[in-house]
Amino acid sequence: MLTSDTRDIVITRILNAPVSTVWTLWTNPKAVTRWWGPEDYSSPSAKIDLREGGSYLFAMRSPAEQGGAVSYTGGVYKRIDPLERLEFTQNLTNAVGEPLPDDELPAGFSQDVHTIVELRDVHGLTELTITEKGWTKSLMSVFAYAGMHQSLDKMADRLADQEVSA
């Protein structure tokens, strides 16, 4: 919900791939590890229980020059319309997927961000729209916006390199 203290992040991209390929990039753990995380970050693991009420847990490793720490993003799938829409919560978590307590979060970081991923066919290409609802107005929301753009740049690069198969 948007209030005076929160904002929604909305990103739309046209990707040079059919919807089924982009769906795989979001729903196959091996495929997720090929693009998840901002520039210079890697994703050492991803777990996905793709069903409403199921959970996901994506790992992200910072570059060595930034310490090489691994952090985790996880949540619960709320709605799944195959090849069209994913809705899920998004949290910073520990290694087993439990949301971090407030005193372990970066300042201004929002938990339980309601995220919607929508896919639409546009003449064989995919229009991807990501909406993240309820970010606290803070520097962390700016980092989240930039980080998702960088992740999508990596996704587009993987599509160009044909690195999509499971």
From TrEMBL:
Domain of life assignment: Bacteria
One Pfam family it belongs to: AHSA1
All copies of domain Activator of Hsp90 ATPase homologue 1/2-like C-terminal, residue ranges: 16-159
Name of the molecule in the record: SRPBCC domain-containing protein
Similarity-based family: Belongs to the AHA1 family.
Cross-referenced InterPro entries: ASHA1/2-like_C (IPR013538), START-like_dom_sf (IPR023393)
